[in-house]
Batch of 4 targets.
Target 1
Amino acid sequence: MIDKRRGELYRNPSEGKIAGVCAGLADYFGWETWLVRILVVSGVLLGMGWFVVIYIAAWFILDKKAGTEEVCAKKFKRKAKQQNDCHEEDIANESIKVKSRIWQAGEPPKQAFHDIRRKFKTLEKELQKIERYVTSPEFTVSREINKL
């Protein structure tokens, strides 16, 4: 089922090429970003030069999407080990959207299936770590100390 509610309109510079206006519009309408970019470029090339003025105005008027600074900071400032840990955490927390039409945002069903498998494998590894800890003597000692 597709969620028909729309949030607020923001720029999405982490997904955008220039300023993230097209990516923000795509998020807002639930379309693919490439489709919005093609529509804007086609409009400019077909003589609707006011698209450029609207794009620049939107660049200055629209706020950045919340959390884009943290995403960029994570991408560029993490160390190798932290990247692996965060990557597994990102996989476990990501939502998978399947698109039913080509212009909608999301993944094709085959790709979504592979992503779901990868997500379950990651969650299985996390569950095995938890089981290993709970069955270890370290957990028993820790529990007994906490009882005191």
Target 2
Amino acid sequence: MKLTYEPVIGLEIHAELLTNSKMFCGCSADYGSAPEPNTNICPTCTGLPGAMPVVNKKAMELAALVGLALNCSINKHNTFARKNYYYPDLPKGYQISQYELPIAEKGWLEVDAPSSPTLLPEGEGSSPLSLRERVRVRVRRVHIEEDTAKLSHEKNYALVDFNRAGVPLLEIVSEPDMRSVEAALDYATKVRAILRYLGVNSGDMEKGVLRFEANISVRPVGSDEFRTRTEIKNLNSFRALARASQYEIERQIKIYEEGGTVIQETLGWDDVRGVTTSQRSKEEAHDYRYFPEPDLPPLQLSDAWIESIRSQLPELPEAKTSRFISDFGLTPSEARFLTSERTLADYFESVVAKSKSPAKTIHSWIAGEFMRYLNDSGLSIDDVTLAPQALAKLIDMVTDKTIGASAGKTVLTELFKNGGDPAQIVKEKNLLQMTDVNAIQEIVTKILNDNPKEVDEYNAGKETLFQWFMGQVARATKGKADPNVAKELMVKGLEERKNRR
């Protein structure tokens, strides 16, 4: 009988904070706009002797905001420490971070996970995902530190750019509460959404401003032991997180099945080959020789300050999803799509407020033609200049049958490209829907009379021809015939010809 295994997963999420200046100096935190490498620097962020750090107040406010959004307790007394290790991208030879007393800790976030997420050895696959359950993932700590410089590796040397060194970096550390890759993905997705809702991080993983590190071990199902874990560093996409985690789970299962031992180590992810690679033996806290940062006094946060930060919390994705379901009659999947981005949720609500059409109809337009245009154009919701009022007016014109759905798509494209008033575009392009029953009847009759062969084939059982007939109506009316009227008349006409046989 084969043993079944379950993964034990914890995530560390590193998020650069959207501040104007770096964490401990006045250099710009917008290192991406620096004209050249090593130009956005000063003695403090390059670790020159005698330079003194000063805490970025805005960064602490954003860190506390994230902690509160993740249901954490804010430590009114928190400190900075020196995390000592040598690497070329660390200018001081140590990193200023928080260790024993972080700004926030003991939080939680609920995620969706498969109800039976066990994995089988020898690649037999995972359990079905049809049954899902809510799982609470504990957030161990939220602490702030400084980002490192950027290394570029060439054939036989490496280049260092210190423009990024010292940028405020938030680290969100979960407990090892996730038992499937799906749960880890949902957790990471929800944390990213929260960071974007709060406006503290752009969520642009391609630029490296948000990075994941997965701590993974496996154990027999039913066991409560914590076996040796490995850490996969610097995963900069959800796809990389999923593939790397799945590979590492299967690798460890295979080792145990063959009687081997998993070694605690830090791993990299080779996305091209689809494998994890060893980087170094995994460090423990004592390896970093943490000690209090002597140049920065402990921070004392008042209750009034904490409450002032709490008052800045917006409606977060989970709460907004629940409200969209109850207020607008949307399904959970529809609501989750609309609340995945704060900008998208706000845009949807603005259209609803200006429209007479049902909220579900508006969702259909936004999830359908609206998003299709953005995807085809390589745009994001943040790039949209189409006014919600204009989209609401267009949707209402389709809903009240002033124009057909096909004409609505034409108008939407024009609005995206050139703006304008939907009613004026309809008038200029002669897109008003044809609703005159007699006029549509004449067109239907002519099509049936001109195509006796197709009529006979349809009535003989080739029902797929019905769409062809409807296509002929659309072509003859340039898509302006009321589809419901045309369909009714076409069905009636075909039936009459069938009865004549």
Target 3
Amino acid sequence: MSASFLEIVELPSGEIVLRRSDEESAEPLVTMSFSQELLDFLQGDQVEVARAMLDACIAEVGRKTEAEEHIPENRILH
């Protein structure tokens, strides 16, 4: 993934997307949608919940990338 800035945006449809900030018309990297039941429960905090979910995802990708850097090339992972 390129080193551009990312932004979390709530679309008019109610979906929350992660996209590159310099490419508004490009396809989002991630799209989230919450059920009406969950939206009622969150009482307007859905973007904060989405941000926490994305932070966890980015941290996991970072850990995975670091782990792969230490694996010998001739080893096969499943």
Target 4
Amino acid sequence: MDPILASIQLFAFNFAPLNWMVCDGSLVPISQHAAVFSLVGTTYGGDGMTNFGLPNLKGKEPVPGSVFCICMQGIFPQRP
């Protein structure tokens, strides 16, 4: 089953799997991730013209050695 685009998930290891990025507040180019930008916008930072920010969940992991990641490639969520 494919993950839903821009969903956030906790992984039990300290790296981001393929097509996921660590939720560490980093800035991401809109040109490479336009679909995620259309869902997230500038909620977590960025200028909205060339980049946007990912949520910063560093230090909020319930288990040491785990990491929160956001899906950067997956199924675009459908409206009900």
